[in-house]
């Protein structure tokens, strides 16, 4: 794969890549870093891609693995509580309950829901991207929908 083809394919799926990274990592800066690192790795390993038609799932898998590596590294860090005299930062109110509910899901549910509903990926594409069978993808989406409806119902009842 030459540089022009690589760049064209990446531009075609750049929103998908960002969504994958964001659903794993939960913030813009880490998502951008993960996409950048995954693109570098993909470029370096482009000769390992046997079929250019499989570029999208191949790159999505590299990105997903990059995000998992970043999360593993994040768990190794030690966090120390701030002194009590520091000012508290006020968080803005949550405007989108659905997005917040999706953020609370397990990563495998979060990724599938985002890619299926926001990016319009098919079950087959999701299976290729995640590396799990289509039946498992369908089951996880069904379970994620159930979890989402329960979470939204509880939050809605709390608001009343």
Put the structure in a nutshell:
With 160 residues, this protein is an all-alpha fold. The chain has 8 helices and no strands.
Could you walk me through the main structural features you see in this protein, from its secondary elements to its overall organization?
This protein has 160 residues and is mainly alpha-helical. The protein has eight helices and no strands. 71% of the residues lie in helices and 0% in strands. The N and C termini lie far apart (57 Å).
CATH topology of the largest domain: Rna Polymerase Sigma Factor, Chain: A
Low-pLDDT stretches are 85-95
Number of H/I helices: 8
In whole angstroms, the N-to-C terminal distance is 57 Å
The CATH architecture classification of the largest domain is Orthogonal Bundle
Question: Structural class of the helices, strands and pairings?
Answer: mainly alpha
The SSE string, one letter per element, is HHHHHHHH
Mean pLDDT across all amino acids: 81
CATH H level, superfamily name of the largest domain: RNA polymerase sigma factor, region 2, helix turn helix motif
Gyration radius (Cα, Å) is 18 Å
- Beta-strand percentage? under 5%
Helix % is: over 70%
Shape: globular
């Amino acid at each position: 794969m030459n540089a022009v083809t690589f760049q064209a394919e990446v531009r075609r799926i750049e929103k998908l890549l960002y969504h994958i990274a964001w659903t794993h990592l939960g913030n813009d800066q880490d998502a951008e870093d993960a996409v950048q690192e995954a693109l570098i790795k993909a470029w370096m390993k482009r000769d390992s891609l046997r079929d250019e038609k499989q570029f999208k799932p191949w790159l999505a898998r590299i990105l997903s693995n990059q995000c998992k590596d970043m999360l593993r590294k994040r768990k190794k860090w030690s966090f120390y509580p701030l002194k009590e005299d520091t000012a508290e930062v006020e968080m803005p109110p949550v405007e989108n309950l659905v997005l917040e509910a999706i953020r609370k899901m397990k990563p495998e549910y979060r990724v599938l829901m985002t890619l299926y509903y926001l990016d319009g990926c098919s079950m087959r594409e999701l299976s290729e991207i995640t590396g799990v069978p289509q039946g498992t993808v369908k089951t996880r989406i069904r379970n994620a929908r159930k979890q989402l409806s329960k979470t939204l119902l509880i939050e809605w009842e709390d608001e009343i």
